[in-house]
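tool_log.txt
---
The assistant was asked to compare two proteins side by side. It first ran the structure predictor on the initial sequence, then on the second. Raw inputs and outputs are pasted verbatim so the downstream comparison step can read them without reformatting.
(1)
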Amino acid sequence: MQAAMYLAKLYPVLIDRWFKRRWFFKPTGDGLMLVRPFKEKELGALATETLASCLEIVDEFGALCAGQPLLNFDLPSEVGVGLAQGAASRLVSKGKVLDYSGAILNRASRLMDLARPRGIVFDAGLAPGLLDADLQKKFDAAEVYLRGVSPKDPLPVFFLKGTTEIPAVNLSPIGETQWGKPIVERMTLRQMENFATSWRYYRFPNPPIDLEKVKCTVSHPALNNRGQKMGDGSITEQEWAKTTSFKIEEHPDGAIANINIHAIAQHLRDKGIKGPWDVTIRIDYPT
């Protein structure tokens, strides 16, 4: 519920201040998607203006909701932004744009992942040769590899100097990984909270060949801007990072995945997930 309350205050600030004119916006499971149609002659000015806005957002993000009396809890202080330019399809009904789709949206989303936890990463194909020179100086160039976008061929990008660090895994080609049969457990949030012990232990059906690539994904019903379950049955997936609540332990008889089920339950409860709602925990591993 705290997350829903925070986003309900944050998104209007972002949109009204920086993206009010002609921008299409839609909340996603892990952020906010913004799309702006343009005419060719507008590209240079629009790209420069958008990047300048993103720099302001990165600098001011931690204070955007300061002073809101309802947000009396710790708020995020960092944000990652990904930008790309290209062709997209749009769904229109009675003159109103309902949604956008296309590979360029996936590319922007992957670049956002690179920019996290703080900074900006944009595709080198964004207005090449048209960006303001002083603005361009704030960015360094890199060649990255993105799963599902450019796993084998490098994608030229620019990232914010001194702020954004490109993950090492994205600086070399992404190999084809063979995955074993996933470990899947489904339960309600209330069942998770009522487990007698915090830790759940999962044995792998087949030995993972690379423990570093073992990943845990938590899925639950998607929420709208008001913190309510989406009526269309949409699901939000979140990869649970290897922290103190997700560990891989090696034993003489094989590796074990250890998950603090109570920590995940508390995180979901804080996001607004209700006790009777279904939650799925999935563990993937390379074989």
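(2)
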Amino acid sequence: MLFLAVFCGFLAENQREHYVEHQREKQYINSMIEDIRSDTASSPIPVAKRILKRNDSLLMELKNPGIFSDSRRAYYLWSESDYYVPFVYNDRTIEQLKNSVPSGW
């Protein structure tokens, strides 16, 4: 009888752990979706596209033979071409997942 009680307790605990892990999985997925939304909302892609257009204009200006007589536009485009747009990402969910894995895995 005692064996049956311990065995049923083991099954109940296993079922509870499975339920808790499933709920944690849903929380991680929702958190990751929020991270992705925040990353795409602060995307540097529009700024990078403008910079690429300026760089293309700079290349066309440098190919123009009239650059030797008037290079003001080329200087302007050159000064705007080295602008760097850093991509800042949100990795809180990944860090939580890393910290939740037991050591030795």
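---
observation on (2): DSSP finds four helices and no strands in the chain. Helices lie at 2-41, 45-63, 72-81, 92-100.
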